[in-house]
Every structure is written in C-alpha cells, then in structure tokens.
Specification:
Helices cover about 0% and strands about 55% of the residues. By secondary structure, it is mostly beta strands. It has one domain. The strands form 2 sheets. Strands 1-2-3-4 form a 4-stranded antiparallel sheet, with no helix packed on it. It has a 3-stranded antiparallel sheet with strand order 5-6-7, with no helix packed on it. It starts with a strand and ends with a strand.
Length: about 90
C-alpha cells in the first residue's frame, strides 16, 4: 500500500496532455509531466515541467495557441499556493 502510485491526466488537445503522478503515500507533492502522443502505442514524457508545489486541489489547462498552453493550479487550502503560468509545447 505504501508503494502504490497515483496519477491523473488532464487533456490539452488531441496530442498533448498534462499528467500529475506520485509514487507511494510518503512521496509528498506530485511530479507534473507533459505527455505527447507520438504514435498509437508510444508517448514522449517530459518530467518536472513545473516546480513541485503540492497536490492540486483544482487544475485548469487551456490551450492558448499551437505552441503553448496556460496552466492554473491551486493546491490545498491549508497552503493556499497558486500557480498561473504559460508553458511551451515545443520542448
């Protein structure tokens, strides 16, 4: 039970998605990864695209253009950390 992981994906468009993942209960804040669908069975994963700010209470992803998306993250109400950033899809 302590080793079991947890991950969530948030769709950006048909090719890109954002994934939050943690491994184990004691891991703390999740890793935010950019997932790019290359072919039917293959994906390109870019880890740690933003700093670890905590587990998201709410996360909103909106595509701005063909090469970027906007990310709004609010962590738990205890810490009240908020992140509002624009990330490039061409990495």
């Amino acid at each position: 039970m302590l080793i079991d992981g947890e991950s969530n994906r948030y769709q950006i468009d048909n090719i890109y998605s954002l994934q939050t993942s943690r491994v184990g209960v004691l891991s703390g804040s999740p890793t935010y990864s950019l997932i790019e669908k290359k072919f039917v069975f293959f994906e390109k994963v870019t880890d740690d695209i933003i700093p670890k700010i905590g587990y998201p209470k709410s996360l909103l992803v909106s595509k701005i253009g063909n090469d970027s998306f906007r990310l709004n993250v609010l962590t738990s109400e205890i810490y009240k950390e908020r992140l509002d950033t624009i990330i490039s899809l061409n990495r």
